[in-house]
Amino acid sequence: MIKFVGVSKKYKNDIIAVSNINFTIDNGEFVFLVGPSGAGKSTILKLLLREEIPTTGSIFVDKKDITKLKRKEVPYLRRNIGVVFQDFKLLPNKTVYENIAFALQIVEAEPKYIRRRVPMVLSLVGLSERANSYPQQLSGGEQQRVSIARAIVNEPSILVADEPTGNLDPDTSWEIVKLLSEINKRGTTVIMSTHAKDIVDSMKKRVIALEKGNIVRDEMRGVYGYEA
Amino acid sequence: MKLNTAAYYIREGLTNVKRNRAMTVASITSVTAALLILGLFLIIILNVDSIANQVESQLELKAFINDNYDATKVAKVGEEIKAISGVKSITFESKKDALNSFKKQLGDKSYLVNGLENDNPMPQSFIVKVTDANMMKQVSEEIKKIDGVTQVSYGQDVVDKLLGIIKIIRIVGLFVILILFIISVVIISNTIKLGVFARRREINIMKYIGATDWFIRWPFLVEGIVLGLVGSVLAIAILGFIYGYASDLVNNKLIIFTLLSAGVVIKQSLVYFLAMGSLIGAIGSGISIKRFLNV
């Protein structure tokens, strides 16, 4: 469960990124975060990942106030939150397999477990054939699948996707969203920020809409609501 | 730390060493140079220490007796010296004994004094051991008053001077070592910084997927320590080689004191060198990663 309580973030240059944000996301939900650029979507995701600390307010992940985490504890929070970025952030000098295995090496998983787990996740994202390719040999959609595989290989309870389809064509975007939806059906909470109106409108999932740092709408079976 | 994680750190660290080849060579060279100078001071200090010990162990008075005194007169002087408080023991050294012991000191150059037996220039003397080194001066004053004693000499001046020199060398050496240490740390830190910079994307991703600071830090620490250690091993090899030659050369010319052998010097300074090398490396890399860990 994720809970934002009266969260505001003011950056050093006095720009107010978000102000008095309140929402709760239950386990297993699929939530779209929508709004114009600069509305505060990225800030909310950064706050959730503890990349930023709110100026006021509390953020709870599984009942723990993450604004009070010590520096040492942050990695363990992040192991429980998989992240997918618009620009994939794959390591160019590692193969698809190695990119995914890397996430397990970092948490000091047993090599035996890594050898079993990575092929499983590869087959889940439909990339078993490309295990030994390097990222630049893959299409954008395939690269994003690798990055999703890396995000879920640790079996985090939350998956955060920051405009995951931003660099992809509509057809590929749909495949990625279907994959995220599939992961969500297996029990992972998914939070996705996006500008893709079509996707949001047809998925009929919960939508949290932001404008100028405020929540202007929070609907259970929502639509994008802006002119795309 | 798990074994395969440790293997990962070492593998990644060595990869970094190979990746920045030019900078690796540059920083090893500078660490070697710095440690060479540092080692020079260490060797000087070790040797001066050893010479001071050699002199101190000879901490005895020598009372030279009038050449014309015969055995009975000499014995009488001996009695008088013995009576002075603070005197532990006395040994008589005849003119012949003195010449022989001088010959011994000369070693294979003893031919220099051949033929002097019949016209022996060495004085007869009493070697006086005192109960306490601090009483040297007082005892020597007493002995001087005795008739027939021509001169009293003791090593105190030399020892004092040596101790003074050691102190100065230690202070200067410490200062130079500190400066060289800082320079080496900066050089290594710059080398590592290049590696960290080249891998900042990777570090950033690692932070996002939940790597601990230490997990990110270790490979760079390994890299720094490897650079420092290689530098120090090179330095000690060069130093040992040169010192081996130099000490042989000096020991052949120098009669009164002997310099420490190269083996002893290397044995005594090896631990310092390795510790210094790895410390320089570890601090250097520690500094350079710090900034990149804040994500």
Automatic annotation (TrEMBL), chain A:
Subcellular location: Cell membrane
The ABC transporter domain, residue ranges: 2-228
Matches recorded under SUPFAM superfamilies: P-loop containing nucleoside triphosphate hydrolases
SMART domains recorded: AAA
MF terms (GO), sorted A to Z: ATP binding; ATP hydrolysis activity; transmembrane transporter activity
Membrane topology qualifier: Peripheral membrane protein
GO biological process: cell division
Keyword tags: ATP-binding, Cell cycle, Cell division, Cell membrane, Membrane, Nucleotide-binding
InterPro entries tied to this protein: AAA+_ATPase, ABC_transporter-like_ATP-bd, ABC_transporter-like_CS, ABC_transpr_LolD-like, Cell_div_FtsE, P-loop_NTPase
A GO cellular-component term linked to this record: plasma membrane
Family indicated by similarity: Belongs to the ABC transporter superfamily.
Assembly with partners or alone: Homodimer. Forms a membrane-associated complex with FtsX.
Function per UniProt: Part of the ABC transporter FtsEX involved in cellular division.
Protein name: Cell division ATP-binding protein FtsE
Species of origin: Thermoanaerobacterium aotearoense SCUT27
Gene designation per UniProt: ftsE
